[in-house]
Amino acid sequence: MKKTQLVFLSLAVFLTGILCSCSDSDSGIRAVNHSLVFDYSKNSSVPDVYLSVFVQPANEAQRAEKITVTELKTDRKWIITNPEKISNRNKNWAGWSRLHAAEGERFNAGKYHILYEDASGDESEAEFNLALEDSFFVTSFEDIPKKTTLTLSRQCALYDKDMNMIFYGPVKSTWTNGKQIKKDHQRSEKIRYSLTNSNGSMIFLKAIEDIYVE
């Protein structure tokens, strides 16, 4: 499965503008958007966890050369030397959608520092805060709502037979079975559910499932 398909929910949320925006930055960075993603794509109770971080620079994002993300509590660094570029609503962003912790380690709650460097060598800095609960790392997708005080909204994505995403948004109350889903989206063959907090800084992705019609 293509990388863009695996991270479609985090990017879809990002592109609709509900990711957490950080204003603690200098004039070279207009905004920072971050989201910690818990991906249960292997249908396991232990998720694959990665951090999605994007910067909206004051100049063109196409000039982004390097972005360094530092976890201040541990001084661990993630260096992005070929940032992904995204354009949306006349805004340009540069960053990376899947930053992983080293094997045997995990992300910690607290402040993270961003150092942004453009093609001219000019540097800008920003910070964002990551708030998370330890139970997230060992909790199954179904139990997440029971183990957190977060208010989570339930979203889903629908795919056609070629794994092209044809819908992303809230789960309709009428979608109690595959027949009802196909009534609204005839080409849908697979579905993936997600749970997202109010500012998009936490995203939980369930494994992709087939849509059955009895």
- How much helical structure, as a percent, in the residues? 10-25%
What is the CA-based Rg, rounded? 18 Å
- What string gives the helices and strands in order? HHEEEEEEEEEHEEHEEE
Outline the biggest β-sheet. 10 strands, mixed
Q: Regarding quaternary structure, how should these chains be classified?
A: single chain
* Structural class label: mainly beta
| Total DSSP helices | 4
Morphology? globular
In what range is the share of β-strand residues?
Answer: 35-45%
Indicate the low-confidence ranges by residue numbers.
1-10, 12-20
- End-to-end C-alpha gap: 27 Å
Structure summary, number of beta strands: 14
Mean pLDDT equals 84
Short description:
By secondary structure, the protein is mainly β. It is 11% helix and 45% strand.
Task: Summarize the structure in words.
The chain has 214 residues and is mainly β. It has helices at 3-6, 8-15, 144-147, 178-184, and strands at residues 20-22, 29-39, 48-57, 64-71, 76-80, 84-88, 91-99, 110-118, 123-130, 152-159, 165-170, 190-197, 202-205, 209-210. The longest helix is centred in the N-terminal third of the chain and has 8 residues, at 8-15.
SSE inventory with pairings:
Elements: H1 3-6, H2 8-15, E1 20-22, E2 29-39, E3 48-57, E4 64-71, E5 76-80, E6 84-88, E7 91-99, E8 110-118, E9 123-130, H3 144-147, E10 152-159, E11 165-170, H4 178-184, E12 190-197, E13 202-205, E14 209-210
Parallel strand pairs: 2-13
Antiparallel strand pairs: 1-2, 2-3, 3-7, 4-5, 4-8, 6-7, 8-9, 10-11, 10-12, 12-13, 12-14
